[in-house]
Amino acid sequence: MIFSPSSIVARPAPPAPHVAPSPHPSQKETPLLPDHGRTADDLLAELTALKAADLPVRGGRVTAYVYDTGRPGVHEAAHRAYAEMLEVNMLDPTAFPSMVALEKRVIGAAAELLGRPDAAGIFTSGGTESIMLAVKAARDARPGATRVVLPVTAHPAFHKAAHYLGMEIVPVPVDPDTFQASVPAVEAAVDDRTALVVVSAPSYPQGVVDPVERIAAVAASRGALCHVDACVGGWLLPWLREAGAEVPPFDLSVPGVTSLSCDLHKYGYAPKGASVLLFADPALRRHAYFASGAWPGYTVINATVQSSRSAGPLAGAWATMQSLGREGYRELGRATLEATRRLVLGVGAIPGLRVLGRPEAALVAIAGSAGVDVFVLADEARRRGWFLQPQLSYAGIPANLHITVTGVTLAGVDAMLQVIAESAEAARANGPAKVPDGLPELIASLDLDALDDATFAELASSVGIDLAGAAQGGGETGGGGMAAVNAVLDALPAPTREAILVRFLSVLYG
């Protein structure tokens, strides 16, 4: 996560005392728990007011976080199915057989699309949970093996899983031109202590597919498991291939691939809370499960990290898949591929900008040069009504802006390119983000654990970061002005970035 324009404001300001975040106007008028019940209309009106500062989830101007088919009927079907199954509890499949039937259908469709119709699977709440379970399964299947080998471009969810599960991350570099994982580096890193080797299809930062075949073969030769993180690409790459894109082998049909994750709430266009984890061998899926009989209560057997969970997301995913069908996904794939190609060509024609690598999916990373600061460019685009996601530099990969191309992007790709060109020119004229001399070094030297949240907020205010505005969706300017903040973060080592982000979240929630 990076501080986004809708979550925090940076602006020149003299030192000021800490001001606690003020409640939303509607919260001033309504007790947190009212004495008497409120009507549905009243509640929905308050939700509408609370969402006023949110980024829009439809239309394609927000190029991260949301996925839009541009087909209202599909989304309506998903919402209705979600609501229909909202109160079905997936804790006990014997109590609610409807959810077992739906899960089998969703898992079966994913397995069929991803190269192994007989694969075993689990429906999860998202990519992070799918990855968590894949790491757990590898750990439990290979007792004593505690290492996870992965490229530096692999999703942080693997680091999170290793942190929670007591595993060790062994990062390997990527090629500086293609941004694909280095096969020789993987070969050198894998040993008898390796439980799992990770590849991405594609990696999120640059949208490139790692050499899955070669790395899976390395893992198999050393007795390690191999997981393909296809959370982004699993439900996209097959349709891009049908649309004419060159997509390398990446799925469960590849020898040596033992598990794969695929998010349905990304390019499956389902409501949030929908992912699948597939295993080539059902025996490996059993290692992802958790059961406990060491208490005098009800039987505890969990397929996921969660226990009680709503079947709403499962029904929403199923309804979306059924509403679109194969032809619907083919059409979205064709539109997405065309939009991606036009975006890559268009960005390449804008002075001072370049696309990193050769995107093989619908994820495009744009770096700046010739006096174009991408963080300033992002601010300028935000002022023009477009959100481009900033990505910090790491492991020799420069800071850049990330764009997720979806089914609705094609209709607005020319407008997007015009905004990017105008914003790049404005960024060149404005110059790079201004960071006070010595500020990154000062922050890096602080003992953040010694500061309480109020003191941290006061420190942020003294350098022009308005945490009070963050709680209200961007403060008076309604977003923008993030270039200096991202520039400071970009200058900090990763552990300090992480500490700052944790403190920001703590202050934001109060």
TrEMBL record:
**Which SUPFAM superfamilies does the record cross-reference, listed alphabetically?**
PLP-dependent transferases
Required cofactor(s): pyridoxal 5'-phosphate
| Pro residues composition bias: residue spans | 12-24
- Please list the residue ranges annotated as the Aminotransferase class V domain: 111-283
Gene Ontology molecular function: any one: transaminase activity
Q: Where is this region: Disordered?
A: 12-37
Q: Mind listing the UniProt keywords for this protein, alphabetically?
A: Aminotransferase, Lyase, Pyridoxal phosphate, Transferase
Question: What protein name applies here?
Answer: Aspartate aminotransferase family protein
Provenance organism:
Microbispora oryzae
